[in-house]
Design brief:
Strand content: 15-25%
Order of helices and strands: HHHEHEHEHEHHEEHEHEHEEEHE
Number of strands: 12
Radius of gyration: 19 Å
Mean pLDDT: 86
Distance between the termini: 18 Å
Structural class: alpha/beta
Largest sheet: 10 strands, parallel
Helix content: 40-55%
Number of helices: 12
Length: 333
């Protein structure tokens, strides 16, 4: 009976609460900065209140991320160990076989994941790459999982091909604010990221887009990133917030680490400005204490990646995650 009531409540929350004009597309940079500057308790209270209006506050969605093609990327993203511009321990590999991906997806489903995300280190996939990825999407969908991909820039035609194969979500992060972008990446421009998101949206695929904090940016620059995401029309269904994982050999190695409470503030503002999105506590969670993760859930995070790795960097093991969620009384979906 308890399970049935919980399910009914979740359905009601998701079907009766819809974004209003006040919560979609009206956030100015000044308003977002004003939010992030609120006293910490006031900010979390506001975020938790909005979170409860749209979601079960004691539920977290699980996703698994698998690198299906690692390393050798021609982009020069300053945070990325997969870039061919930097000397790191990441070795380039070819795209994984269908059977290996199927087994990984089966394991993810066994461990409770509802979404299976596949990442490939490409600037943009070629036609032959898309043909291979569509096979993998079909395998994931046959297992009853949601399918997500992150493959770099995407043309309108390629977005349509992925949609036809059954893709549910496409991830393409904005990474940072428009003003700071050229300090992090020089091999493409910000508009190309926005163009990819438009192609994904026009194909009828859900958008997963967030950013990375802890790259030496100011609070105002973090607010500018959140402003950009919140004013996409519509804003993303899924918003991963990553805390930089520093990898030796990349230009951002040695950057001063972000204060954990600043990260919590970022989660809270994402929740307030994008109230119906899944806000994902993503990369960098391995280095967060249980208390900081708990604050992130209170601030509105309701999705996590689980598994040994996030593409190439570490992630908390599933036993630790289970123990923490049990302590907090959080269910998974």
């Amino acid at each position: 009976m308890h399970t049935q009531q919980t399910q009914e409540r979740q359905v009601q929350l998701r079907t009766t609460k819809t974004p209003t004009p006040e919560t979609r597309g009206v956030w100015t940079p000044a308003k977002v900065l004003e939010l992030i500057n609120l006293p910490f308790n006031d900010l979390l209270f506001k975020a938790q209140k909005i979170h409860r209006e749209h979601f079960n506050p004691n539920e977290v969605q699980l996703s698994t991320l698998l690198s299906i093609k690692t390393g050798g990327c021609p982009e020069d993203c300053a945070y990325c160990p997969q870039s061919s511009h930097y000397e790191t321990e990441v070795e380039a590999s070819k795209i994984m076989d269908v059977e290996d991906v199927r087994l990984a997806a089966l394991e993810a489903k066994k461990n409770g994941a509802s979404r299976f995300c596949m990442g490939a280190a490409w600037r943009e996939p070629k036609d032959r790459d898309i043909e291979k990825v569509t096979e993998l999407i079909k395998v994931v969908k046959e297992l009853g999982l949601e399918a997500c991909c992150t493959l770099g820039m995407l043309s309108a035609q390629h977005a349509q091909s992925l949609k036809q194969a059954g893709l549910d979500y496409y991830n393409h992060n904005l990474d940072t604010s428009p003003e700071s972008y050229s300090d992090i990446i020089t091999t493409r421009v910000y508009q190309e990221r926005l163009d990819t998101l438009d192609n994904v949206r026009n194909a009828g695929v859900n958008v997963c887009s967030g950013g990375i904090v802890g790259m030496g940016e100011s609070r105002q620059e973090r607010a500018a990133l959140l402003h950009q995401l919140a004013n996409l029309d519509p804003y993303p269904e899924s918003v991963p917030i990553n805390n930089l994982v520093q990898v030796e050999g990349t230009p951002l190695y040695g950057t001063k680490e972000l204060d954990p409470l600043e990260f919590v503030r970022t989660i809270a503002v994402a929740r307030i400005t994008m109230p119906t999105a899944r806000v994902r506590l993503s990369a960098g969670r391995q280095n967060m204490s249980e208390a900081v993760q708990a604050l992130c859930f209170m601030a509105g995070a309701n999705s996590i990646f689980y598994g040994d790795k996030l593409l190439t960097t570490g992630n908390p093991d599933w036993e630790r995650d289970q123990a923490l969620l049990t302590k907090l009384g959080i269910q998974t979906s």
